[in-house]
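Shipment paperwork, digital attachment
Item: protein structure file
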Amino acid sequence: MSNLNILISGFGIAGGAFVLCMLRAYPDAKITIVERDPTLRLTGASVDIRSSAVDIIKWLGLEPTIREQTTNEQGLQFVDANGKGVATIGATGNSDSQSFTSEYEIFRGALAKIFIDPIIDRVTTVFDETIDHFEQREDKVRVTFAKSKDVKEYDLLVAADGYRSKIRGTMLNTQPEEHIRDLGAHVAYFTIKKDLLQGARLAKWYNATNGRVIFLRPDPDPAGRTRGNLIMVTTNRELKTRTRLDNALRQGNETYMALMEELFRDAGWLAPEVLQGMRESDDFYSSPFGLVRSPKLHSDRVVLLGDAGYATFGIGTSLAIIGGYVLAGELLRHSGHVEAALKGYGDIMQQHVNTLPSGENMMQWFNPQTWWGITIRNAILAVATGLKLDKLATMAASAFGFTEKKVAMPEYPWPAVE
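Attachment content:
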């Protein structure tokens, strides 16, 4: 079936990667993408590309463009309250064995645009709209849209609507939050309109007590900018703080920024400058770290893609790219027979995802709550990096979820590119 009629919910990296691969398999496929935002959201923090996703971007011919738009981050440096470097873990220069800093560090918006630009004129895009509900039919899925109230039928519904996927909740007959595991970390992202790193290409990680982290990453913009991250790491003993963070998230950006000012005002290092930059930023957003492990990735003609099915700390972007490739590849391998293709996709992705480290408790272990714990952590890092134990750095990155483990998948019969 070469003329599949497909609806995708969510126009980000996962949806874009799937469409780009799908149009290689079936150039005549009819694809509609519904996006809740009024325009493409081409902002976001730094993401990276690892594992089989590296092979996929090379196969798609996108690697040169991605390399041109990387952040040029050279590694990660842990600093003390005076800004003095405690330990530095550099990039490896090897895409098959990467450290915390990937060979493909790139801002989310830039990567999304690289996937979207080649397909934007080949799909129908509906902005400022969502799916209200859907019904499974024998060989179709009937979708009702939330705002227009239009009712349409499709051969396949792809949920690329993020880790709080409403479609996942409907498909599993649960609340979307039921399959999200809280990793005990909340992060605020924003662009600071000055170069607080003073031209340095190393990202800087500073720990204060009570799980407070200031994480600054370089931005290659010639105007001079810094990507700011304020991270709160909580343990199961800090349920009151975790509840305050969750409530602030629900109440919106102003409430969350006010809470960050309260919690970080005496954090030390560059806290005053970072908080001021947060207030002056144009792109602030906040989110918890969450892990999604859906018990199944498809039901009849509805399928979960990317974070909607398997959000994973450290490698979520790569899994989104891999998932898009595998889903399109399985539809090609099974000649457009949707049910067989979705089963193949589900088997491949779940088998791989189930072997990945969950990242649970890693943020707590790596970010002690006390000065004594931070001092011990820094001493261990200083010794390890001072002895140039590169393998230890890549092992640590892997334990966090930044893994290079490849996905076991078939050789798909992709048609030759003209």
